[in-house]
């Protein structure tokens, strides 16, 4: 009898312990809701971040704004400080350039000498979306712009297709964007700063376009100025 009673007591203690553990592991109603909501919010933010990274990786070039930190910007590398939303997000990147990397005044569309790229100068650079894993990260600069004002940033494009119409010429770039250039607009060549023709623009030509606030044919973005870089 004593053995049976002892057995029942042990079973009761085990059941009580199991119930206590289950009660501790199970979050209360409010806490469970908060944890679920927090988890969903974190997942949403992570998904948005991944979507943004995927979209970015599809672009062959991106724009970077920064302040030159290099004491000498005449070499093959130019360091710039890119400011983020917070001080923690601010970082330095290195632009790899060569003697053929164009430097352009965004207001005049004219070629600028590399000697004007001095420490402390604000620049906008269209760069490759591929960065090295080194610190600071390095990337290739396709074109460097100075004197960008009023939020008007010329777009860098590599021509993928040209459609010549009666009143406008449509330039398609490699990401698929379309740019509408009025046939009365005269392209300028960066090499000599002189006027050129649309015949000088071929597939894979590199250009800068100054977008307007209007749309052209089939949703193409109208262009106020066109600079042929090569």
TrEMBL record:
Keywords: Signal. Residues 25-52 have a biased composition (Basic and acidic residues). It comes from the Bacteria. Residues 23-55 are annotated as: Disordered. The keyword Signal applies. Residues 1-19 form the signal peptide. This is Lipoprotein. The lineage of its organism: Bacteria, Bacillati, Bacillota, Clostridia, Peptostreptococcales.
């Amino acid at each position: 009898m004593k053995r049976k009673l002892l057995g029942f007591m042990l079973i009761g203690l085990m059941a009580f312990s199991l119930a206590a553990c289950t009660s501790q592991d199970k979050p209360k109603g409010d806490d469970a809701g908060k944890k679920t909501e927090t988890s969903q919010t974190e997942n949403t933010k992570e998904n948005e971040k991944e979507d943004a990274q995927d979209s970015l990786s599809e672009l062959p070039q991106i724009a970077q704004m920064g302040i030159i930190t290099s004491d000498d910007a005449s070499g093959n590398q130019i360091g710039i400080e890119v400011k983020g939303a917070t001080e923690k997000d601010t970082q330095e990147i290195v632009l790899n350039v060569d003697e053929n990397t164009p430097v352009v005044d965004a207001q005049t569309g004219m070629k600028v000498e590399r000697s004007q790229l001095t420490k402390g100068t604000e620049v906008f650079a269209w760069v490759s979306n591929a960065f090295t894993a080194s610190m600071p990260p390095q990337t290739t600069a396709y074109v460097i712009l100075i004197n960008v004002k009023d939020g008007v940033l010329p777009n860098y494009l590599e021509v993928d297709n040209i459609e010549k119409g009666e009143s406008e010429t449509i330039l398609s770039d490699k990401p698929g964007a379309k740019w509408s250039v009025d046939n009365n607009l005269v392209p300028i060549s960066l090499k000599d700063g002189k006027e050129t023709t649309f015949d000088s623009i071929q597939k894979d030509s590199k250009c800068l376009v100054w977008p307007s606030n209007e749309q052209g044919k089939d949703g193409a973005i109208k262009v106020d100025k066109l600079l042929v870089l090569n």
